[in-house]
């Protein structure tokens, strides 16, 4: 029972893995804030692709990106986000639906952004599940033709052991319980799931988009953290501590990490990237 309680606690943390202020969220969609989710925004010649932000499991359209979205907007990008994968908790906590369904939903949002802005393609920036779902969209749902650059942080392409606790969940047959409370994505992340098998049938990265994956050695949600690394052409993997040994951010902290923000900006526009400046940064917990 002690292990079961530990598993359930870890699962609760994982459901909040990409959120910073979920408890205060009250809207399904981010209102325009300094130009973010401004549907009259038109991409500039310098940044012709609008940026679509994809939140993590348990996040929503704005809480996951309260730091990064204004940073991107200040750099001159049109920035958009939505709450996808809503189930019993509505817009308070998204990303809970089965991930194949969420991938189709993200694809619909990409088309909406393209239609509103007139852009042929978008860039996608995602955190945690916000990397897994777009990867499926690009590989299986035609997204590769509509995405120019993909940048993920706290990436997860092969699920997570939750330090071994996910295997315990599988042994105890808790998958049905997780689905019953509206978290199909939780079961998709368990080792051996049909979703992960399909995503990893051949390289996750497909021709067309450029892929960047940023991971941290201090991740306690995606375990091992190397499950966020990609293989294939057009792929750049960045272990955060290789760039900045003074950064000990965990999974949650990546969303507000100034070093991650620098890396995202540079990968979206590598021709005009700025010298990377390592800043000491740490977060408590996962």
TrEMBL record:
Signal peptide positions on this chain = 1-23
Pfam families from the UniProt entry: Lipase_2
| Entry keyword annotation includes Transport | no
Keyword field: Signal
Which species does the entry assign this protein to? Streptomyces inusitatus
Q: What is this protein called?
A: Lipase
GO MF annotation list: lipase activity
The record's InterPro entries line, in alphabetical order, gives:
AB_hydrolase_fold, Lipase_EstA/Esterase_EstB
- Xref: SUPFAM superfamilies: alpha/beta-Hydrolases (SSF53474)
GO BP, one example?
lipid catabolic process
The question of whether Signal is a record keyword is answered with yes
């Amino acid at each position: 029972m002690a292990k079961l309680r530990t598993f359930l606690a870890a699962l609760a943390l994982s459901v909040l893995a990409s959120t910073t202020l979920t408890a205060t969220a009250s809207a399904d969609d981010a209102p325009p804030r300094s130009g973010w989710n401004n549907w009259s925004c038109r991409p500039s010649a310098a940044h012709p692709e609008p940026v679509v932000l994809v939140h993590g499991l348990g996040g929503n359209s704005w809480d996951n990106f309260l730091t990064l979205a204004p940073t991107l907007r200040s750099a001159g990008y049109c920035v958009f986000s939505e709450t996808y994968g809503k189930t019993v908790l509505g817009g308070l906590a998204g990303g809970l639906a089965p991930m194949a369904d969420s991938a189709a939903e993200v694809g619909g949002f990409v088309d909406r952004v393209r239609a509103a802005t007139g852009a042929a393609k978008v860039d996608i920036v995602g955190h945690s599940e916000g990397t897994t779902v777009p990867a499926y969209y690009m590989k299986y749902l035609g997204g590769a033709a509509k995405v120019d650059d993909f940048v993920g942080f706290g990436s997860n392409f092969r699920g997570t052991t939750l330090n071994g606790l996910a295997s315990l969940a599988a042994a105890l047959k808790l998958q049905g319980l997780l689905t019953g409370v509206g978290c199909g994505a939780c079961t998709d992340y368990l080792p051996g799931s049909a979703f992960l098998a399909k995503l990893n049938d051949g390289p996750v990265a497909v021709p067309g988009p450029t892929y960047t994956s940023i991971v941290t050695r201090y991740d306690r949600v995606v375990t091992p953290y190397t499950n966020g690394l990609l293989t294939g052409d057009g792929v750049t993997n960045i272990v955060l501590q290789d760039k900045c040994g003074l950064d000990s951010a965990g999974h949650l902290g990546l969303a507000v990490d100034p070093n991650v923000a620098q890396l995202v900006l540079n990968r979206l526009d590598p021709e005009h990237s700025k010298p990377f400046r390592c800043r000491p940064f740490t977060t408590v917990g996962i």
